[in-house]
Amino acid sequence: MDSEEYQWAVEWTLDIDKVRSLYDSISYAYESWPGYPKRPLEEQEFLKTVKSELFAMMMDHNLYKNS
Fold first, then answer.
1. Cis omega (within 30 of 0) on the bond before 37?
2. Which of 14, 23, 40, 47 has its CA 20 to 30 A from that of 30?
3. pLDDT for res 33
C-alpha cells in the first residue's frame, strides 16, 4: 500500500479541563522547543498550529458558556 494513499484519522471527545491541560502541555513544548537542527522545523510549526487550535477551542467554550 502506498503511504500517500493511506490516511488514518482519529477523533477525540475532550472536556474543557482536558483541552486546557493539553494546551498547557503543548505551550510548554512550543516554548521549550530546542530549535533546528536538534528538532525538525515541521515540529515547531505543528506545535504552533495545535496550540492555536486549542486556544480557539478554549475561546469558543468561553463564548458559548457565558451566552
1. yes
2. 14
3. 97
Taking the model in full, what pTM does it have?
0.84
Q: Please tell me the predicted confidence (pLDDT) of residue 6.
A: 86
Residues 36/4, Cβ–Cβ less than 8 Å: no
Q: Is residue 7 part of a domain?
A: no
Q: Which domain holds residue 52?
A: 16-65
- Nearest alpha carbon to residue 49 among 35, 29, 34, 67: 29
Q: Is residue 48 part of a domain?
A: yes
CB 26 within 8 A of CB 47: yes
Number of domains in the chain: 1
Cell numbers standing for residue 13: 471527545
